[in-house]
Amino acid sequence: MKKVKGLLVMDVDSTLIMEEGIDLLGEEAGVGPQVADITERAMRGELDFEEALRERVALLKGLQETVLDTILGRIHFTPGAEELVAELHKRGYKVAVVSGGFHQTVDILAERLNLDYVKANHLEIVNGVLTGRVLGEIVTKDVKKAKLRAWALENGLEMKDTVAMGDGANDLPMIQEAGIGIAFCAKPIVEKEAPYRITEKNLYKAIEIIDEVRA
User: Fold this and answer.
1) Mind listing the pLDDT tens digit for each residue in 89-121?
2) Contact partners, residue 40, CB within 8 Å, separation at least 6
3) Per its UniProt entry, what is the enzyme's top EC class, as one word (predicted)?
């Protein structure tokens, strides 16, 4: 078996994709501004992420599960996403996503990019309708950091062999834990505290940082 050379773990909403998935669901439920406001405050680190997520999901109660297909059609990969994943796979890296979003959409996005690992939240759906609840463990900032460590360990990698990238306050612990931590078009607190930053919407810029650090 070929030795894994490194691991990149990234956030999904506003990092791997241009949109915030839960905000799109909020729009479909007719509570778009309300959901977007909570998302913005949570990403800036002003609200507890778990509480903010439960609050937003509660507003989605009663939506038909077909809405998940509808929002998939409105989601766009951030420029450079496909190229970044392809290049890292070529170099022997594993590529993963950890998301405060939902497996129901994130799994499909991950499959399209041939990603190696996915961790997200599960929306509870009963008889084809969203109940307004989340099932199981919520993906918090601590879970994101823990998955980075666990996936590195699984592949026999040290933390110096890892890269983490995201835009929100809940990404900061994994960004600071990784060998190379990158704030991607990030909220002020993340941009200020991350070791590296990308300020244009082009994920492939991560390769430049990796090459610079590893040179």
Assistant:
1) 999 999 999 999 999 999 999 999 999 999 999
2) none
3) hydrolase
